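Hi V.,

Quick status before I head out on leave. The structure for the redesign project is tokenized and pasted below; the design run finished overnight.
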């Protein structure tokens, strides 16, 4: 299995990569690209100066403006500018603003060559770059730039030369390289300190939370307030605390379920075993009534086991629905016939009000199971008056089926829990023939598989109403 790196080491790794990237960028721009960028800046500078000279040549009325521009440019930028202008009277040239800079000391044949190169170019521009040894340091090479431009027409032509020296930067680069080592040291120190700070603020609280979370399987979690250094850690603490409470509730509910199921299994088993032994020991007790008790208790036992199996299958998504279009009203009417025995023998009052042609698309047997669970729940909790109302009505293309009892009702705070898989109300509230408390869990699973709406309405002392609803379909 791939080894997972700790958060604190990942933080240090990413900060180290960032520091190395930062040093690399500094090295690239300050050491490698310094020379070419500086030379590019100088070339652009002398081109810009030549453009200014050309603009003055085109706009100026006399030579004083041109001389002033050349003078100011040379003083401000450290460049040398020389201009030749021919007149319509002949090829003679006048030298302007000679102040002893390099261009005025250049040999005539060298100047002629530069002018000839510019004339032979497509745009009348020629840039010469040459190297020479520095006066201060023979090991330091100095580069010089001379830009020659020819403008104007045949009758009035001007030659502009702009000279600029590129100061040697080798010594500067050496200084920057030494500084880069110092900067690298500072960055490495900053990475270490920042890693330690982030580890203390982020990784350490998570480690403490993870350690405390080991007690979650026992339904326990104690949040350390010191770990609430940022909102995500606080939210994680709250989530784990809530999970611990839920696990504790689930464990208690499981214990209650086991106790309830054990009780509900023991009762029919005891009855079956007791009546069977009695009929063996006393042959005269082998009556139809005693055999009926054994059969009824066996059916009760079978129903309980089937409920447990159904719930297990549904929670593991092993239930497959077989949807079909059928009349919900006919289903309810048919299922209600099963409860006639309660009306005739035990005095229950079961009233019904059903629609006609309430066609839905669902699994017939599962919806019957839902309705029967609602009816069983109502019978168990209907109270001393033993009155139950089954109502069905259609509204806005939806059919709703309700089963209402008039028992003690359910506290509002307990309503959200009645659908839980292990939840069961107080046994004093339950009829002696009640089940294990998983019927509503089965209802929830079935209706959610159908993507149907369902719910319960209850008020303490006034009874409860359980309902579900489906969209209507065209009749088959």
């Amino acid at each position: 299995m791939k080894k997972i790196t700790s958060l604190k080491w990942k933080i240090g790794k990413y900060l180290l990569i960032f520091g190395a990237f930062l040093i690399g960028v500094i090295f690239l721009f300050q050491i490698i690209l310094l020379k070419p960028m500086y030379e590019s800046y100088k070339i652009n500078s002398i081109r810009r100066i030549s453009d200014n000279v050309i603009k003055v040549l085109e706009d100026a009325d006399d030579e004083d403006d041109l001389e002033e521009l050349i003078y100011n440019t040379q003083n401000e930028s450290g460049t040398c500018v020389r201009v030749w202008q021919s007149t319509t009277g002949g090829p003679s040239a006048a030298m302007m603003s000679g102040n002893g800079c390099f261009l005025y000391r250049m040999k005539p044949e060298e100047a002629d060559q530069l002018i000839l190169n510019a004339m032979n170019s497509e745009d009348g521009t020629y840039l010469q770059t040459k190297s020479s040894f520095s006066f201060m340091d023979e090991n330091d090479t100095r580069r010089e730039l001379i830009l020659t431009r020819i403008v104007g027409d045949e009758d009035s032509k001007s030659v502009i030369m702009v000279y600029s020296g590129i100061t040697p930067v080798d010594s500067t680069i050496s200084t920057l390289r030494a500084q880069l080592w110092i900067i690298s040291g500072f960055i490495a120190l900053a990475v270490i300190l920042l890693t330690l700070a982030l580890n203390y603020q982020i990784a350490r609280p998570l480690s403490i939370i993870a350690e405390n979370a080991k007690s979650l399987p026992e339904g326990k979690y104690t949040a350390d307030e010191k770990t609430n250094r940022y909102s995500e850690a606080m939210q994680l603490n709250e989530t784990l605390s809530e999970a611990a409470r839920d696990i504790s509730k689930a464990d208690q509910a499981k214990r209650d379920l086991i106790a309830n199921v054990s009780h509900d299994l023991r009762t029919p088993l005891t009855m079956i075993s007791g009546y069977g032994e009695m009929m063996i020991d006393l042959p005269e007790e082998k009556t139809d009534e005693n055999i009926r008790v054994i059969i009824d208790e066996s059916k009760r036992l079978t129903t309980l086991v089937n409920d447990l199996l159904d719930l297990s299958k549904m929670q593991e998504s092993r239930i497959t629905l077989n949807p079909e279009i059928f009349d919900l009203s006919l289903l309810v009417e048919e299922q209600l016939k099963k409860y006639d025995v309660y009306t005739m023998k035990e005095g229950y009052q079961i009233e019904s009000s059903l629609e006609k042609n309430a066609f839905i698309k669902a699994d017939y047997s599962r919806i019957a199971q839902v309705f029967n669970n609602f009816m069983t729940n109502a019978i168990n909790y209907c109270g001393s008056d033993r009155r139950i109302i089954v109502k069905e009505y259609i509204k806005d293309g939806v059919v709703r089926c309700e089963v209402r009892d008039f028992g003690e009702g359910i506290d509002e705070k307990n309503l959200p829990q009645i659908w839980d898989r292990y939840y069961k109300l107080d046994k004093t509230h339950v009829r002696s023939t009640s089940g294990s408390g998983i019927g509503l869990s089965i209802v929830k699973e079935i209706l959610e598989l159908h993507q149907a709406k369902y719910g319960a309405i209850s008020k303490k002392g006034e009874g409860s109403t359980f309902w579900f609803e489906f969209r209507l379909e065209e009749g088959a």
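Above is the designed sequence. The longest helix spans residues 231-281.

G. will cover questions while I'm gone.

Best,
W.
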